[in-house]
Amino acid sequence: MELTRVIIGSVYTEKAERQKENRIYTLQVAPDATKIDVKNALKKFYDVEVSSVRAMRVGAKMRNVGSKQIAKRKPSKRMIITLAPKSKTLDVTAFKNA
Questions:
Q1: What's the CATH number where 73 sits?
Q2: In a domain, 91, yes or no
Q3: Is residue 98 in a domain?
Q4: Which of 16, 40, 18, 45 is nearest to 28 (CA)?
Q5: Domains contained in the chain, number
Q6: What mean pLDDT is predicted for residues 7-20?
Q7: Does the structure show a pLDDT above 80 at 95?
Q8: DSSP-assigned beta bridge partners for residue 81
Q9: Which of 25, 48, 60, 69 is 20 to 30 A away from residue 82, measured at CA?
Q10: Do the beta carbons of residue 38 and residue 83 sit within 8 Å?
């Protein structure tokens, strides 16, 4: 997979913001991205050292309308990143071209 298309953006929830104090970041990634792809993209484009990567899939949220079902939210994939103690903090807006 092309590394420039791996990371889609940050996840902004109360829990994700609270975990940033402990150097744990939650990122939304491409559905076919692997842990190795995410780790390599963070090293290459954001210059941070990653100590662990955990993956989770968020399912679609469906709603019944009459006899039909409509999707309120699409399924997505998130990675929970823990940075190494000597690494700088992650700033997703500071994308650098390699």
A1: 3.30.70.330
A2: no
A3: no
A4: 16
A5: 1
A6: 94
A7: no
A8: 25, 53
A9: 60
A10: no
